[in-house]
Specification:
By secondary structure, the protein is an alpha+beta fold. It has 3 helices and 5 strands, in the order αβααββββ.
Length: 192
C-alpha cells in the first residue's frame, strides 16, 4: 500500500482558489470605492461643461443674429434717407420717421418743416444708386453702422441736370421690441 505524502506546506487546490478569490475581492472593493465617485465627478464636470458651452454658443449666436438684423435695418434705412422728391415729401418724411426713434426722430421731426421748404423751393429730386453699409459694433440691443449712398440729385441748382454724388452716414440703431430703429444719424453735412 502506498500513500503519497503531501508536503507539509502544500495547499489544496480549493484553498488556493479561495485565497485568490479573497485577494481579488479585497482588491476590487477599494477600486470600487474610488471608481464610482470618480465617475460621478467626471459626469458632473462633463454636464456642467456642456451646459456652459451651450449657453456661450447661444449667446454668440444671439449676438450674431442681432448684428445681422441691425445690418439689414441699416442697409434698408440708408436709402430712405437719400431718396426724396419735392413733389411728394410726405412719403419721404413718413418713411424716415417710421424707421426712427429717440433723439433722431425728435430732431428730424423738428427740422422737417424747414427741410420741406428748402426741398420744395429748389424742386429737388434725389434718387439712390448703390448703397454700401457695414456694422462698426453691435450687441443684442444696440448697434453702430456706417453707410455710403450713391445718389443723383436734380434741382433748380443743377439746372435740371443730374448731379451724381455720395452721402456718407453714420447711424446708431436700437432694438425696439422686434425691430431695429435708428436713434442717431450723423453726416459730414449734419455734424454739430
Amino acid at each position: 500500500m502506498s500513500t503519497e505524502l503531501e508536503p507539509p506546506h502544500a495547499e489544496s487546490d480549493d484553498a488556493r482558489t479561495e485565497t485568490a478569490e479573497s485577494a481579488i475581492a479585497v482588491t476590487r472593493l477599494p477600486l470600487r470605492r474610488i471608481t464610482i465617485p470618480a465617475a460621478v465627478v467626471i459626469t458632473i464636470i462633463a454636464v456642467v461643461t456642456a451646459s456652459l458651452l451651450a449657453v456661450d454658443n447661444h449667446r454668440i449666436r444671439s449676438r450674431e443674429q442681432a448684428r445681422d438684423a441691425a445690418h439689414q435695418a441699416a442697409c434698408a434705412y440708408a436709402p430712405t434717407l437719400a431718396r426724396y422728391d419735392a413733389k411728394d415729401l410726405d412719403t419721404y418724411f413718413a418713411a424716415v420717421l417710421a424707421g426712427a426713434t429717440g433723439e433722431w426722430k425728435t430732431e428730424f421731426d423738428a427740422t422737417s418743416r424747414d427741410l420741406r421748404d428748402v426741398l420744395t423751393q429748389g424742386q429737388v429730386v434725389s434718387t439712390v444708386g448703390n448703397v454700401s453699409c457695414a456694422i462698426e459694433s453691435a450687441d443684442e440691443t444696440t448697434a453702430r453702422a456706417v453707410a455710403v449712398i450713391n445718389q443723383t440729385i436734380t434741382s433748380l441748382g443743377t439746372k435740371g441736370a443730374p448731379a451724381p454724388g455720395q452721402l456718407s452716414v453714420s447711424m446708431s440703431l436700437r432694438k425696439d421690441a422686434d425691430r431695429w430703429l435708428v436713434s442717431e444719424v450723423s453726416t459730414p453735412s449734419l455734424s454739430h
